[in-house]
Write a structure and sequence with these properties.
The complex is a heterodimer of chains A (about 180) and B (about 160).
Chain A (H helix, E strand, L loop, with lengths): L9 H26 L3 H9 L11 H28 L5 H27 L5 H26 L1 H27 L1
Helix pairs in contact in A: 1-5, 2-5, 3-4, 3-5, 4-5
Chain B lengths: L9 H28 L5 H9 L9 H28 L7 H24 L4 H34 L1
Classes of the chains: A mainly alpha (about 180), B mainly alpha (about 160).
Chain lengths: ~180, ~160
């Protein structure tokens, strides 16, 4: 942990990382259970299936899912990107790239739902790819929080730093004595 | 978080923090009311909800995961905010970690308890217990943060 002011935020950050993993896991489970996990399932889910008497998704149905996600996802990404940037867990460029990737994947995933329904079933693989990419970025944010705030790593780096400082002080004292 | 760690920004941050706490309390109260209305305090009603009434359809796996998905956002975000506020609140050194850890464990147990209730009969009481534990821990954390904020305001005003 580079900044000592971060220490009090260790527990909140780790709790947040835990909930990010729960979010990613539950989203993956829902994607697999409801949309089948692949492009064919996505097509069937949005366009319906006459053989199974499943109707195509209505605009109201699509909005019912899209609107809460348009609020929740940016809020979560904003919070986690803010904490990671504050902790300087990544170089600025890399943090910006990860944030852009996460926001882009989320937006593409939401837009692809409407795309599959109203533009064409050819967009189903794009929906799967966007979802997979978003999941990866979500887990990457959680991993970054853990990497920065995990107590074992923090304590080890603090010990290493203290040892280096002691070596320097001891060495300097020895040199002075000599 | 940046302004939370700057002591000079404390006074400016206090009004929005107080408003956030009011809304967090309302959200927790609403969640509790919703759960009580749906029979969340009776093991029999909980079991009927997840396993179906007398041979009826049990709740699907997708519905169970949907509950986890929504609950993780609500619990996760409120807990993250409360834990961050507790982190900068003075005079909470002895209880801060215990409160946040209890709230984290309680809410996770509450989120995943329905899978156990759905899998085995006679475990409706488990969800009642996890709901009570999660609510108690979240309310305790919220109250502690609110008191610390109020004290901080009084000290700054004096």
């Amino acid at each position: 942990m580079r900044d000592p002011r971060l220490k009090p935020f260790r527990l909140p950050a780790l709790v947040f990382a835990g909930f990010l993993v729960v979010q990613a896991t539950s989203a993956a489970a829902l994607f697999a259970l409801k949309l089948g996990g692949g492009a064919t399932g996505v097509r069937t889910f949005y366009l319906g299936d006459a053989e199974r008497f499943a109707p195509a998704k209505s605009l109201a149905g699509l909005l019912e899912v899209a609107v809460p996600h348009l609020v929740a996802i940016p809020l979560v990404l904003f919070a986690v990107a803010h904490v990671v940037a504050f902790a300087r867990a990544l170089p600025t460029r890399a943090a910006r790239a990860l944030a852009a990737l996460a926001f882009g994947a989320a937006l593409a995933g939401i837009a692809a739902s409407f795309g599959v329904r109203y533009l064409g079933p050819g967009l189903a693989p794009a929906k799967v790819a966007a979802f997979a990419l978003f999941e990866v970025t979500l887990l990457a944010w959680a991993a970054l929080l853990v990497a920065v705030f995990l107590p074992a790593r923090v304590d080890a780096s603090a010990r290493e730093e203290a040892r280096a400082r002691a070596d320097t002080v001891a060495g300097a004292a020895e040199r002075i004595a000599k | 978080m940046r302004w939370l760690v700057q002591p000079t920004a404390g006074a400016r941050a206090r009004p929005p923090v107080a408003l956030f706490l009011v809304f967090a309390a309302l959200a927790l109260a609403g969640l509790a009311m919703q759960r009580i209305e749906a029979g969340g305090l009776s093991p029999g009603d909980v079991e009927a909800f997840y396993r179906g009434v007398e041979g009826g359809e049990p709740l699907s796996a997708a519905a169970l995961w949907e509950e986890v998905h929504v609950g993780a956002f609500v619990y996760g975000f409120v807990l993250f905010m409360l834990a961050s506020l507790a982190a900068v609140a003075p005079r909470l050194d002895g209880v801060r970690t215990a409160l946040v850890a209890a709230a984290f464990a309680g809410t996770l147990a509450d989120l995943f308890a329905p899978f156990v209730v759905a899998a085995r009969p006679g475990l409706g009481a488990l969800r009642v217990a996890t709901f009570a534990a999660a609510s108690a821990a979240m309310w305790a954390l919220l109250a502690t943060v609110a008191i610390a904020q109020a004290r901080g305001g009084r000290v700054a005003g004096a």
